[in-house]
Amino acid sequence: MHLDIVKTLTQLCEAAAVSGFEKHGATIAAELLTPYCDSVEIDAFGNVIGMRRCGKTPAKTVLLDAHLDQIGFLVTEVLDGGFLRFTQAGGVDPRMLLGCEVTVLADEALYGVISCMPPHLLKPGEQDKAVPMEEMLIDTGLIDAKSRIKLGTPIVFAEKVCQLAPDSITGKCLDDRAGIVAIAQAMEKLKDAALSVDTAVLISVQEETTSLGAGIGTWRIRPDYAIAVDVGHAKTPDAPSDKTYEYGGGVMIGMGPNMHTGFTKALIKTARAEQIDHQLEIMEGHSGTNAWAMQVAAYGTAQAILSMPLRYMHTPIESVKLSDINAVSNLLACFLKDFDGEVRI
Amino acid sequence: MMLEYLQTLCGLPGASGCEDAVRDYIRAEAAGVAEEIRTDPMGNLMIFRKGKKSIGKTVMLAAHMDEVGFIVKNITDEGMLKFGFVGGIDPRVVIGRRVRFGEVVGVVGIKAVHLTQAAERKTMPKTGELYIDIGAMSKSAAEDMVSLGDYGVFDSAYVPFGDGLIKARAIDDRLGCAVLLTLLKEQPPVDTWFCFTVQEEVGLRGALTAAYNVQPDYALVVEGTTAADLADVPAHKTVCRVRGGAVLPFMDGRTIYDQGVFELLRTAAEKRAVTWQTKHMVAGGTDAGVIHKSRAGVRVGAVAAPVRYIHSPACVASIEDMEGVLTIARAFLEDIEHV
């Protein structure tokens, strides 16, 4: 049975996993990997580690990483009238929050709306100013929220995944559930293939804050090669064109000091040979992804990064194209199928 | 029953100028019980039903079918929609939200926070810079999905939440439509014209011709009204409060409500032990603003449910307040002959 990408993405995106609160999401991710791995375990931090051995010894290990956590919010104060104050976990633009629907992850998940002060209460000119997050409120509709909601309770966007034009998917936390799905899809494509390398999958925690999961997970696995699978910025009318990539333009292959040049060139060679749509993402320093932490874990790792162009990152309307997810999984599968553990470029 | 009507009505699109789906639903519901159903060139739906008695006066109940929404004004080469607001939408609530043009879903985009400067994040983008992404990869692909002039609404579900609250879009004024429909179906106490008006949100346009058509002696407008009872708002600025009961305004930005009708409503509420409040702020307006100036004048009143975040994708109202509105609207018909 083929992995249903939209269905799987929907399930993954519904499994809340705010950075630092990933336990529930880890269970769902572990279930997803189980059919494709010899072993799957969850570590004390919530990292999910799957191993697929190739049966040969010695064999090199290639690690595929996608992060489990999502940006979210934490309750900082519970006020009278059912209102909450909150802060962010991960980077958020406050300008898209008013009127947003959220889920407060109390013992029983609670629905809430981010309140918007009616325009008649604003002073002239105030409507042009963004409301800072510390002045915002979540309306839980409860008469007594204090008895139901504890400080530090995580909060996520409520929007479910939905389809825009065919092939385009929108929803919360496609960053980086799309990466998890791309890895699962690659593992499925390789299910019956004989490989010459061991494949490790790391679904890592806390990327949005410190990359803790990627650092400790990579240390534990000690891979020879590691590929961070994440999302990159796709072009939109309001974004700088030199920092964004074609939506639907295929897998973004990262280049720069965070990446091992030979390993990256080997991936590019495969993309060309297999005619997989791809675009090069040149990063002169920190890639802003788990690749930064993984590259220097233990004795160091030959690192690469593959990304899917994503619109509206860190909003409830993140959008990605299925064809781009497919390009990532194709490149991973095609590369691993023929990889003997040596980069000869 | 009223809440079931409300849920169905809040699921129908009806931006001002495109109320067809709402009108079709109400007309179909009324078909079996109405004595007369009229429409006019504006698109108002006016339904007469004989009551349990006749009082020799023409009584009108009014609720508007339309809601704030969007209209497609242009399509860019990249396939993004440029749009205008239909009615008064606060531009601060649209970014990051989903919208719907028929079956086509779109999102109001904003570039990733990573691509912004700190100063930029303190200022709202200009409305003209906003765009809707429907996933089309080119202008022609977008044109296959929507056309210039298409009307859209927020894509937002009807969600009961908290302690007895409802979140939905367009509670203003599908609540009024649901109240009227309930009273129409149960047979009103007196002969009544139930007027479902169009284009309230762009300037009370429909009610103007509906009132001329029906020629009422008395009219009651059933509405949703702004509640600003948020945690940080001082009591005197809250206008009215959710869970504070049905709102009986004595005056707003467009109308001084008829003293006799206001007193009738106030007494009717108290007689039936319905909690009521009034608006602390004289602002805004309802269809009454044009109805009471119609012909030689009409004696008007209004009853409204307090609604938080009105004109946003996530309007919030209390079930108890809304049921109070229904009881008072019914009481208006029961008591109007004594005004």
Give a verbal description of the structure:
The complex is a heterodimer of chains A (345) and B (339). Chain A has seven helices and 17 strands. Chain A has helices spanning 5-14, 23-33, 174-189, 212-221, 261-273, 291-295, 322-338, and strands spanning 39-42, 48-52, 61-67, 72-78, 83-89, 101-104, 110-114, 138-139, 154-157, 162-163, 168-171, 198-204, 225-233, 251-255, 278-282, 302-311, 318-321. The radius of gyration of chain A is 21 Å and the shape is globular. The mean pLDDT of chain A is 96. Chain B has a six-stranded mixed β-sheet, sandwiched between helices. Chain B has a six-stranded antiparallel β-sheet with strand order 5-4-9-6-7-8. The longest helix of chain B is centred in the last third of the chain and has 17 residues, at 319-335. The interface between A and B is large, with 69 and 67 residues.
Task: Note the main attributes of this structure.
heterodimer, A: 345 residues, alpha+beta, 11-stranded mixed beta sheet, 6-stranded antiparallel β-barrel, 7 helices, B: 339 residues, 6-stranded mixed beta sheet, 6-stranded antiparallel beta sheet, 8 helices, 17 strands, 24% strand
Gist of the model:
With 345 residues, chain A is α+β, with helices and mostly antiparallel strands. Chain A has 7 helices and 17 strands. In chain A, strand 1 and strand 2 form a beta hairpin.
Order of helices and strands of chain B: HHEEEEEEEEHEEEHEHEEHEHEEH
Overall pLDDT of chain A, averaged? 96
Beta-strand proportion of chain A: 25-35%
Q: Write out the strand line-up for the largest beta sheet of chain B, numbering strands in chain order.
A: 1-2-12-3-13-16
Largest sheet of chain B: 6 strands, mixed
Tell me the total number of β-strands of chain A: 17
The main β sheet of chain A shows up as: 11 strands, mixed
- Cα Rg of chain A: 21 Å
Helical element count of chain B? 8
pLDDT averaged residue by residue of chain B: 97
